[in-house]
Amino acid sequence: MNPGIDLQQRFVETLMGYGLSPGAAKAVWLPLPLLLMLIGATVGVLVAVWLERKISAAAQQRIGPEFIGPLGILAPVADGIKLVFKEDIVPANSDPWLFLLGPVIVVIPVFLSYLIVPFGQNLMITDLGIGIFLWIALSSIVPIGLLMSGYASNNKYALIGGLRAAAQSISYEIPLALAVLAVVMMSNSLSTVDIVNQQSGYGILGWNLWRQPAGLLLFWISALAECERMPFDLPEAEEEIVAGYQTEYAGMKFALFYLGSYVNLVLSALLVSVLYLGGWDFPIPLDLLAGLLHISPDNSVLQIVTGGLGIVMTLLKAYFFVFIAILLRWTVPRVRIDQLLDLGWKFLLPIGLVNLLMTAGLKLALPFAFGG
Amino acid sequence: MFALSGYEYLLGFLILCSLVPALALSASKVLRPSNRGPERRTTYESGMEPVGGAWIQFNIRYYMFALVFVVFDVETVFLYPWAVAFHKLGVLGFVEALIFIAILIVGLVYAWRKGALEWS
User: Fold this and answer.
1) Distance CA A290, CA B22 (A)
2) What is the pTM of this model?
3) From the candidates A88, A164, A368, which should be mutated to test the interface with B, based on the most B CB atoms within 10 A?
4) How distant, in Å, are the alpha carbons of A47, A228, A267, A336, B21 from that of A260?
5) What is d(CA B96, CA A247) in angstroms, rounded to the nearest whole number?
6) Does residue A172 sit at the B interface (CB-CB below 8 Å)?
7) DSSP readout, A173-184?
8) Do residues A187 and A278 make contact, with C-beta atoms less than 8 angstroms apart?
């Protein structure tokens, strides 16, 4: 398997060539992937917001943003700048500290989850052993922030919205964790790199999509509910509770909620592609192509192409799911709260358990096809 | 320290991610207009004068769901090590997990029959 380019090793070696000690070279390297990933995540959100507005417009036969930049591509940037200049209104009856802390607690864990997203064999911040489990753990922090802001606002709509958000998050966390469990079982590892490697080698035929079709649906439905996307956007249902826990928020604090929800959406889409669609894996095995063209695996051009193609493939797969989420928003109506809870507890949870046990049984019966 | 290799990135990223809201909020603090007038700070209640606060005794209907959630969340935490090590455990591990999940399914059925999963 061609690992693609290892930027860290190259960078450290280059710096050591200039006479730096290995420790110093590593210290210089350390902040670079972090900064790059943070900027990448932010740009990813801007693209997702632009897509949301353009696709929504197309679904309603409008044009959408078109004046700011070519095809209105800078509209999300303008949105952000506008929000920076907005007055910060803290309701007189609220608890100002919790009111401030709420959006901050929502935004930090979703950004932090990007730590485990791989874009190539060596193109990720770090290959943590606990990998996907870190994301499950971090995603449990978000409802605390939502509950906090809903309560701190001292507003009835906000309180109901915050409670709904917390109930929804905890209800769909279990199906989500069960879907991830089945994938983890097949790759014998929690690390996202191992999960992708287990799927690679056979091109599109090796992806988890074929072995976990129920898991894919389970994961995506639960992820949409966790992101509070239509049809599960009850915590901010405009017709009933104005804007839910966001009702009292304005300016930058509102922008943090907005940012957090889109980062979460893009992150979920990235993780679907990692868990079920082979991550950075190309639909045709690259080793096979390289073999046909008689290119040796340590050819440096091939390594760069593999790395670049990995990033492109990951993003393509992820944005395909973002596209589906946006289309779903304009296709399905919002569910009621009892329907939402029924779907989570009485449908997805049993299916998740059955899916897990079936995966375990099939792994015993067909060890080769299910990861040995 | 070796057992935790890679976690220096987690710490670094945590600090960097904490800077995002801090920078955004302080940039906005410099640029935005200041608070103007007490009317702007009243609680929003669809344009009406707010009637009472929201910090009251409130019937939280999601309470039962939260209790069931705790049971199943702890269950999934127990299942993670099992899933990672499943290729070494073989049939016995499968049967044991089957028994474990069966007990939990009994719990789920009980909660279901008792109406803990009804939103009414």
Assistant:
1) 48
2) 0.88
3) A88
4) 14, 11, 10, 24, 10
5) 49
6) no
7) HHHHHHHHHHHH
8) no
CA distance B9 to chain A (A): 7
Residues B97 and B92: their CA atoms lie apart, in Å, by 9
Angle formed by the axes of helices A251-276 and A156-187, nearest 10°:
20
Nearest CA in chain B to A248: B44
pLDDT for res A219? 92
A43 touches chain B (CB under 8 A): no
Res B1: pLDDT: 41
Task: Record the tokens describing residue B101, joined without a space.
Answer: 């999940």
The pLDDT, as a whole number, for residue A15 is 77
Nearest to B80 among A87, A133, A242 (CB): A133
CB A231 within 8 A of CB A335: yes
Q: Which of A347-351, A360-364, B27-31, B32-36 has the highest average model confidence (pLDDT)?
A: A347-351
Torsional sign, CA A153, A257, A133, A319: positive
Tell me which of 1.20.58.1610, 3.90.1150.10, 1.20.1270.10, 3.40.50.1100 is the CATH number of domain B58-120. Answer: 1.20.58.1610
Separation between Cα atoms, residue A260 and residue A262, nearest integer Å? 6
| Domain segments of chain B as ranges | 58-120
Which positions in chain B touch A33 (Cβ < 8 Å)?
A: 9
C-alpha to C-alpha distances, B117 to A338, A347, B60, B62, nearest whole angstrom: 9, 12, 14, 9
- All residues at 6 or more sequence positions from A221 whose CB lies less than 8 Å from its CB, including other chains: A172, A175, A343, A348
What's the average pLDDT block by block, 10 residues per block, for chain A (372 residues)? 66 77 76 85 90 90 84 86 85 86 91 87 78 88 89 86 87 90 88 85 81 90 87 78 82 88 91 88 77 73 79 90 90 86 87 90 80 68
3-state secondary structure of A72: helix
The reply to whether residue B36 touches residue A87, judged by beta carbons under 8 angstroms, is: yes
| Secondary structure element (H or E) that encloses residue B19, with its range | helix B7-31
Sign of CA dihedral A320, A253, A170, A41: positive
Average pLDDT estimate for B46-57: 76
Helix (H) or strand (E) holding A272: helix A251-276
Residue A371 sits at the chain B interface (C-beta within 8 Å) = yes
Amino acid found at B59: N
Of B79, B1, B12, residue with least CA distance to A38: B12
